[in-house]
Amino acid sequence: MIKRNEIFKYVKDKYDTEPEYLWSKYPGYAVLRHKSNNKWYGVIINVLKEKLGLEGKEEIDIIDLKNYPELIGTLRNKKEIIPAYHMNKEHWVSVILNGEFPEKELFDLIDLSYEITK
What we know:
Largest sheet: 5 strands, antiparallel
Number of helices: 3
Number of domains: 1
CATH architecture: Alpha-Beta Complex
Strand content: 15-25%
Structural class: alpha+beta
CATH topology: Aspartate Aminotransferase, domain 1
Strand order of the largest sheet: 1-2-3-5-4
CATH class: Alpha Beta
Distance between the termini: 28 Å
Shape: globular
């Protein structure tokens, strides 16, 4: 299981990105953005499973990442990838962090999102 602090360490080491907490109403929502252009390349949020159409009432962490539209359909075939929560579903996906998604694959998706949003 990948935790948000592991993601924060990865993006700090690779991109010198610090998470930004923009909303007092949602203190657990962390934005990852480029320093050069301020574009978001990731958003980590905690949300109730039922709001994602999943079974259960507990809260889970997800990360929204940008991807190429032609790849999103294939990505959504994976159990831990769902249509983006509160983002454009044609260009973004949400990855469930409380699942069994491989760390390397998640970091590859973060890298791709970073590149796409340059």
